[in-house]
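Hi R.,

Here's the chain you asked about this morning:
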Amino acid sequence: MDIFDIYRAAADPEKAKQMSAYMRDQFPFLGLQTPKRKKLSLEFLKETPKSAPDWAFVFKCWEQPEREFQYLAVNYLAKIAPVLTADDIANLREIAVNKPWWDTIDGLDVITGDIALRFPKVNDTLLAWSADRDFWLRRIAIDHQRGRKERTDAGLLSRIIVNNLGQTEFFINKAIGWSLREYSKTNPGWVRGFVAGHSAEMSPLSVREASKYI
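And here is the predicted structure, written out as tokens:
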């Protein structure tokens, strides 16, 4: 059996209902909770060639109705992240805007950020995404430096966040707070100054999240 058959053979209808309800019924599920899903895909991901991305596989995962297949695609991309290049950004954008929700976006942002760190020309694309009509692309832009610590481009982070101040969208305001909170672990003074300078434009949620460790 291939990985698609393996996943479907392990489906649990009762858990599928619960998982779909947890995700506000945005997507149907097979009912494979994270530990089981990881166990089922362990061998597949272990044997995955790391020479070049198999975008046909990724798009096939994205075409499946059940959400676990999109998780599999994100896990696959994370596994081969070191071989992804700036040329892959267009494909990442395509899947990001197709069936978007926080559960896939918050994996794609780090993958995108890894590419941008290795190929700085991608920063211009992310800056453009930060002003896009699609707020999921804006969320990726805001959070793409998550986990960079000392390698964070604070100037770019500032410009991207400023492009998204004054929003009412929960997922944007949460992303702003999250990105600042993470950077505050490395540079609390910078984050403290940013919040002080922009608190009037920031949502209470963003301020609360950003100030958690400062």
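One quick note: The chain has a mean pLDDT of 97.

Cheers,
M.
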